[in-house]
Automatic annotation (TrEMBL):
All copies of domain Reverse transcriptase, residue ranges: 425-728
Protein's name according to its UniProt entry: Molecular chaperone HscB
Transmembrane segments: none
GO cellular component term of the entry, any: mitochondrion
Native species: Mytilus galloprovincialis
GO molecular function per UniProt: ATPase activator activity; catalytic activity; protein-folding chaperone binding
Family under the similarity heading: Belongs to the HscB family.
Keyword Mitochondrion tagged: yes
Keywords noted in UniProt: Chaperone, Cytoplasm, Mitochondrion
CDD domains: DnaJ (cd06257), RT_nLTR_like (cd01650)
Chief site of localization: cytoplasm
Domain (J): residue spans on this chain: 1041-1113
Subcellular localization: Cytoplasm; Mitochondrion
Length: 1204
């Protein structure tokens, strides 16, 4: 089964993922160990793990079906008094469509009772019908854990791996590697040799496109794709190793497959060499990809973003099933047919009112006659056409004819003249050829809901390039007309206006109601497939009434008449279907036309006088494209507004969805709130919060801020996890400068999205600052106790609050320059009427301007400043204030005496960071440098200051003076400096203390001499009986070591027979059942003593546990992710594990067991010697190896128990 299992790199120390290649869709098996309760940050760590799981499942949602198992540390079976983590877990399960079978109690409390169910196996709903009952395995003799294992059987079909989908995708042209001059010359020559009559030849457009494609193919010949699977991990060394291994395998088979002998050894050696070569190539490719990203960051930003995005995304092979209403499609061809049915249905209007349709047709016929009578030919110059061509986005998918923007842009003057002639001929005839109306629609997942449901996709259409050029030219003509008529509350698709301004108007209405202590009701309406169901006749009628007529109206109508679309999916293209309704998403004119289509309802609402007002300024319907929010101060007004929009939707034949349209309300407690709102005769939901323009709104502004900040942190955390594949982690990834650059570009915008509109205060913003600082410390590989001021100084950035303030000030200046806008009218009104304690955004912006000594809000209103000049001024003012605060804070930390703050004056990263190159050696050395600069490098003087025991601050090597930073860097003599660094200070990185040979014995004498009886208060310094005072009362032994508890010398060499005898004696003496008549205090102490004796025995009886405990007692614990292991040794261990996996009989496993047993015994002897000599560095390295040898020994024993 090895070929069916693939390890996934995503995960962490708490999450491990593997991929099982099964049919019909691979399974992503995720094993998780969630953080326990108890610490202050437990819930934060729990949410971090949930976010990481969310990102992993989302990343592989298209290619795998998730199955999650593990210790979740929350009880989902309790029906009452659920903890917060249980609620978060249920929300996560519901959002990812997971299910689980009820299970009995799985956790055993230390008192021996089964207490809770915290272990689960979750499967995706797609697999729910293939899962048998989950059972608890009670009787497992090898289970020493306090959890019961769970077993679930899932019916799956193994993937043979023989059937492979063919790749139908076309080769993408790399224009940056093409000789553009040669392409231009060849195309010009072809056009001169094959003259096309652009005015009279009806096939002129087709001939021109054929000429372009023929020229491209002559310059860039299409290469045939190999039918063989590409070998991503391959080089000459792997090829040679594979040949050698095959030869050795052949010779071994020819000898009859002997289990011992020369051919068997040769086969093993060649297999190891092959695996080693492949691992080295994988590591080389990974380092090369990281190096490419770091180099691109300095040279080419476009390539940098492309590489980062490629690393953070999974390889999406497309969905394996598609659900369209009640039908399910499975094969590639069937899925394409399903897409065709879904989008063709959207493009076909429902006939509901035949009379109304007939009247609209009649109106359109009359309008068409009027426009033809008044039609004047439009003529565009080659300069105007060239300008339109340059507005086309490059590096995009080709149209149905294989033409991209680059084909036209790099074609030269001859092609420009030809395109100009075609467009002018179209305008002259006022007729658009059918070949320019054929689009390619690609379904794009909306990142919400099931990826197999067609409703969760939007169709993006790629139109013919020449048709796009025509639309750009027409857009310039209609935009001036539309901008004049556009309702001021429409903030979507408006040049120079952010969609968030719609949220600003809504929040300003809520703030005004809070200031005036008025009730407020907000309805967020959702239209079903708003862009796809626009009625063409109604749209063209509105367009004519807006003032667009003559040839311009005829051309716009022609673009949608007899338009057709084909579906492109997974390399296949469907047959075309007619488009009878909708504005195609991806079209140049689509956004402008939709604004015309929806403008009437916004005017109706404003003219009705219904809705919220701020002073005399109407704010009742802030809108962004098709997202309409209705705001009113009374329920009756809001219901009337909803009914108005409902009637308009019926008239224009689009549907409002009652299940997705919501109402938020904030009503004083003295008023009646029992009011039901209806839409389409269905009651609307009234949740406590709802999403609008990316902001999770609540009627209470303070609640909105809290909810939104929590959501932003979660999204930013998930974005960080998605970027780990690109190298965004501290130690072995990209260099910190590149990581910081990625963080500022990809994560920071997610973290602060919408906060420049919400304007949180310092209390609300603190969780953001905590996340921001923690992320910076992780990138710099600094411990959590690093001073915050040091982090900001090193990175050259300012706190989140300063970043938000910059955005607020820039938005305010922009609003001041927006003449006749509703935002500017609100600013003028609120600055005059609102006090400094007002919730108004403009009142808070006024205070922020004063905080940084910038021009007053009133002065900016009268004289707005140029945007670029203002941004420079704001950056300088805001940065100066925060940098002054940082320099002051740095001066207050004694640990930061060596940290220069000059880089803050230069507004740059610290030279220590800026000087780091892109090599792995430079990155690994940086950690020590940063710790020295920030005072977190743990020296002997630090140990003396913070250790509860008496520790000598003198350097352990030179014995000359206290080991401070000065001594470490300057005062140690040249002869001992090298040894100083490796022998003395490397262990210090683990922030522990080693006391030498007599340390544990001295500690024992100290702890025994400083114990007092908790009842009589007398010293209990007797060594004969450490569990009882002379007064007969039992004593606590928590402060004693395991050696002291078991009355053993502090030595690695333990007589296990003596230890076992002592264990039995102590359990007989201290077992709680023998002291049931004692006081409650003594009962508790007996339970503690019995538990400690158990722990002491289980720790000291095994060499590995004993060694780990001694290292921990000496202040040098081995971390879980310890990387101080020889790479050759690790490769050797990996090869041993591979040999174990390859073993198919006890006889083939026996030699491995014998060799490992010998190495294990030798290692234990070496560990003993190192502890006897007090060589903690050597002991630590040996114990790390001991862990590996012990694991191998345990694995072999487990295999024997399984009896193959």
């Amino acid at each position: 089964m090895d070929h069916l299992v693939e390890q996934i790199e995503d995960g962490s120390e708490r999450i491990i993922c593997i991929k099982l290649k099964v049919k019909p869709k691979p399974i992503l098996l995720i094993c998780a160990y969630m953080p326990c309760n108890g610490s202050k940050q437990a819930n934060t760590h729990f949410k971090e793990c949930l976010d990481q799981l969310h990102e992993i499942i989302t990343k592989y949602s298209d290619t795998c079906t998730p199955v999650l198992c593990g210790d979740w540390n929350c009880d989902l079976m309790k029906s009452s008094k659920k903890l917060a983590r249980s609620i978060w877990m249920e929300e996560f399960i519901n959002s990812k469509k997971l299910a689980f079978k009820p299970t009995p109690l799985t956790f055993i409390h230390p008192n021996g009772n089964e207490s809770s169910t915290i272990d689960y196996i979750f499967v995706h709903s797609n697999l729910a019908d293939k899962v048998n009952n989950t059972i608890r395995l009670d009787m497992l003799p090898n289970n020493t854990s306090d959890h019961y294992p769970l077993l679930t059987e899932i019916e799956i079909e193994m993937d043979s791996g023989k059937e492979k989908d063919k790749n139908f995708t076309s080769n993408k042209i790399k224009w940056d590697k093409i000789d553009l001059l040669q392409y231009q010359e060849c195309l010009t020559k072809s056009l001169q040799e094959n003259i096309i009559d652009f005015e009279n030849d009806p096939t002129a457009i087709t001939k021109l496109m054929d000429t372009i494609i023929a020229t491209q193919e002559s310059i860039v010949p299409t290469s045939k794709k190999s039918s063989q699977r590409s070998k991503h991990i391959w080089n000459d060394e792997i090829e040679n190793s594979l040949k050698t291994n095959k030869k050795a395998l052949y010779e071994w088979k020819m000898e009859g497959k002997p289990q011992i002998g020369e051919t068997m050894q040769v086969r093993k050696r060649t297999k190891k060499q092959l695996r080693k070569a492949r691992r080295q190539e994988i590591a080389r490719q990974r380092d090369e990809s990281l190096q490419t990203i770091m180099n691109a960051k300095q040279r080419d930003s476009k390539i940098f973003h492309k590489l980062v995005n490629a690393q953070r995304k999974s390889k999406r092979n497309g969905i394996s099933d598609l659900c369209v209403e009640d039908k399910t499609y499975s094969t590639r061809e069937e899925i394409l047919q399903g897409w065709n049915e879904h989008f063709s249905k959207l493009a076909t209007p429902e006939t509901t009112d035949l009379k109304s349709d007939t009247n609209k047709k009649f109106d359109i016929d009359i309008i068409e006659e009027i426009c033809k009578e008044n039609a004047e030919p439009l003529v565009f110059t080659s300069e105007e056409v060239d300008k339109a061509i340059n507005q086309l986005n490059t590096n995009k998918a080709p149209d149905i004819y294989g033409i991209t923007a680059e084909h036209i842009r790099y074609g030269g003057d001859a092609l420009l003249q030809g395109v100009t002639a075609i467009i002018n001929n179209i305008c002259k005839e006022a007729s658009v050829p059918d070949c320019l109306k054929h689009g390619i629609l690609t379904p794009i997942f909306k990142n919400k809901g099931l990826s197999t449901d067609a409703k969760n996709y939007r169709g993006i259409t790629v139109l013919p390039i020449i048709g796009k050029i025509l639309e750009i030219l027409l857009r310039q003509l209609i935009r001036d007309i539309i901008d004049i008529l556009q309702n001021r509350l429409q903030r979507g698709f408006t040049p120079g206006v952010s969609p968030l301004y719609s949220a600003l108007i809504l929040l300003e209405s809520i703030a005004e109601s809070m200031d005036q202590k008025l009730p407020i009701f907000v309805a967020l309406l959702d239209a079903k497939a708003a862009f796809d169901v626009v009625n063409h006749d109604s749209l063209h009628r509105k367009l004519f009434l807006s003032g667009v007529g003559g040839t311009l109206w005829l051309l716009i109508r022609q673009l949608s008449t007899y338009a057709i679309t084909s579906i492109k999916w997974n390399g296949l293209i469907s047959n075309p279907f007619p488009v009878h309704q909708g504005v195609r998403q991806g079209g140049i004119l689509s956004t402008e036309l939709y604004k015309v289509y929806i403008n009437d309802i916004l005017d109706q609402l404003e003219n009705s006088g219904l809705g919220s007002y701020i002073g005399n300024i109407y704010c009742g319907s802030p809108t962004c494209a098709d997202d309409v929010a209705l705001v009113a101060n009374s329920p009756s007004d809001l219901q009337s507004m909803i009914s108005t929009v409902e009637n308009y939707s019926i008239q224009e034949k689009y549907k409002l969805q009652p299940t997705k349209s919501l109402v938020l309300k904030n009503v004083p407690s003295t008023r009646n709130t029992d009011f039901e709102f209806e839409i389409n005769n269905t009651a609307m939901l009234q949740p406590s919060s709802a999403l609008h323009i990316g902001i999770k709104h609540s009627s209470d502004l303070k609640k909105t801020i809290n909810i939104h900040i929590e959501g932003n942190i979660s999204k930013a955390r998930r974005t960080m996890y998605s970027l780990m594949g690109a190298g965004l982690h501290g130690k072995n990834g990209l260099n910190p400068i590149t990581c910081l650059h990625i963080f500022q570009i990809y994560i920071l915008p997610v973290l602060i999205y919408g906060l420049d509109i919400l304007l949180p205060d310092k209390k609300h913003i603190e969780p953001l600052e905590v996340f921001y600082r923690k992320a910076m410390k992780q990138i710099l590989s600094l411990p959590n106790n690093t001073a915050d001021a040091a982090v900001y100084t090193m990175t050259g950035v300012i706190p989140i609050q300063g970043t938000i303030h910059k955005a607020v000030i820039n938005i305010y200046n922009k609003i001041c320059g927006m003449e006749s806008s509703i935002e500017k009218e609100l600013a003028e009104r609120q600055l005059l009427m609102s006090g400094f304690n007002s919730q108004s955004w403009f009142s808070k912006a006024r205070c922020i301007l004063a905080q940084y000594n910038l021009p007053s809000a009133h002065d900016l209103m009268l004289n707005p400043i140029n945007a670029n000049r203002w941004k420079t001024q704001v950056k300088k003012a805001v940065d100066s204030v925060w940098h002054d605060q940082l320099r002051t804070k740095v001066s207050l930390y004694s640990s930061l005496n060596y940290l220069s703050t000059n880089n803050i004056l230069w507004r740059n990263t610290h030279p220590c960071l800026a000087s780091v190159g892109t090599s792995s050696q430079d990155i690994s050395r940086l950690q020590t440098k940063l710790k020295l600069l920030t005072g977190t490098y743990y020296l002997q003087s630090n140990k003396a200051s913070f250790n509860q025991n008496s520790v000598d601050p003198t350097c352990l090597l030179c014995k000359e003076s206290a080991e401070t930073v000065d001594h470490f860097l300057l005062e140690s003599n040249q002869r001992t400096r090298q040894y100083h660094s490796f022998n003395c200070h490397t262990p210090s990185l683990h922030q522990g203390t080693f006391y030498g040979k007599t340390s544990l014995r001295n500690r024992r004498n100290y702890s025994l001499q400083h114990r007092e009886c908790w009842r009589c208060g007398k010293p209990t310094n007797t060594k004969e009986d450490i569990f009882f005072c002379k007064c007969g009362v039992v004593q606590s032994v928590n402060s004693l070591s395991y050696f002291e508890i078991m009355s053993l010398d502090d030595s690695f060499d333990v007589d296990t027979a003596v230890l076992s005898q002592k264990y039995k004696e102590l359990q007989k003496l201290l077992h709680p059942d023998k002291h049931t008549l004692k006081s409650e205090e003594e009962k508790i102490l007996f339970e503690e003593q019995s538990s400690l004796v158990n722990k002491a025995y289980s720790t000291l009886v095994k060499p590995l546990n004993r060694a780990l405990y001694m290292l921990e007692q000496a202040g040098h614990p081995i971390e879980e992710q310890n990387s101080d292991v020889d790479q050759e040794f690790l490769m050797e261990i990996m090869e041993i594990n591979e040999d174990i996996a390859d073993a198919d009989s006890p006889e083939s496993l026996k030699p491995i067991e014998i060799i490992n047993k010998k190495r294990l015994d030798d290692n234990i002897s070496q560990v003993s010697k190192a502890f006897q000599e007090g060589d903690i560095t050597a002991a630590k390295q040996l114990v790390i190896k001991l862990k590996y040898f012990t694991n191998i020994d345990d694995k072999i024993k487990d295999i024997y128990r399984g009896q193959f």
